[in-house]
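#help-structures
NK: newbie question, is this the right format to request a structure? protein is Peroxisomal nicotinamide adenine dinucleotide carrier
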Amino acid sequence: MSSAVVNGLAGAGGGIIAQIITYPLQTVNTRQQTERSAKKRKPGSGATDTSALFQLLQLIQTEGWGGLYSGLKPSLIGTAASQGIYYYFYQILKNKVENIAVARGKKGLGDGTVGMLSWLGIAAVAGSINVLLTNPIWVLVTRMQTHTQAERKILESKKDLLLKEISRAHSLEVSILKDRLVKLESEKPHPYGTLQAIQEVYHESGIRGFWKGLVPTLIMVCNPSIQFMIYETLAKCLQSKGSGKQLPKRNLTAMEVFLLGAIAKLGATVVTYPLLVVKSRLQAKQEIGRNVMSIYTGPIDAIIKMVRYEGFHGFYKGMGTKVVQSVFAASVLFMVKEELVKLAVLLVARSRTMLLTTSKKR
């Protein structure tokens, strides 16, 4: 089995475990990102962002534990596919670039190691391939995570319109309108599964709808690129520390990998978070609130409207939640992935030893 296949499978396994552990925080964060609110007119006025813990408890109270895991099934499929694809192509490119660096080193060109810009390029190419292939899955996941929130906003806007009609209506019409209001208040968000999400996206925008948010998502490729650049650079420093030039580089411990993954993801998330918010807004249901500030025709329109109606604060909604979720998820992913790779290498080595022993006995 090639190193690319091993790393691809290990990346998929690590991604699934990290996703299951941190998914409730991801659901809350997606809702924070897609929540529209007008910018504050005066310093200190208006409502502040609700804490992630409060939103978690509120979500459990209103939607039950299942609400925390809305869209988990397609998310796990997406995670396994995206991590598998990413690590597979990343490892192929990494092997080629490392071989080129070693060959150049033997000719006296460079020190035989891969530089920071090369790591950045490798991660960017692997990330772009991943995005193009898996974007439809993440569109569905975002829809499923924000469905209940969107439905509630639509019901609220309908109630507001009815209340305005009641205030202007004649006495004979008031009772009829009040009956409609009672029925509306008793309505609850409809059940929403993967098939419904697929039908809704296709009905709204056709096939193109499954690639909504592609432009900011492709730009977001710089997130894992920055993450892997930081990770590989720090890992290189740690592996070289205490090892002489003639000695092989030491393997990193699980805790070292965990901490390096956390540091790398923290740096990448802080830099690229506004793009993540724009992507989530584009992929979520556009009818939230049913007003001009809530409907986006594309990434540029989304950015302009967010600046106009929400201010620059809107680009950082839920960032605290995202930092906790993504840093912890990345740390778990890196640690589990590396341990799975070590396990695969060990199993391959043992199988080869057993084959050699068997052949000698014969």
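mod (FA): yep, format's fine, and the tokens are attached above. Confidence is low (pLDDT under 50) at residues 41-49.
NK: thank you!
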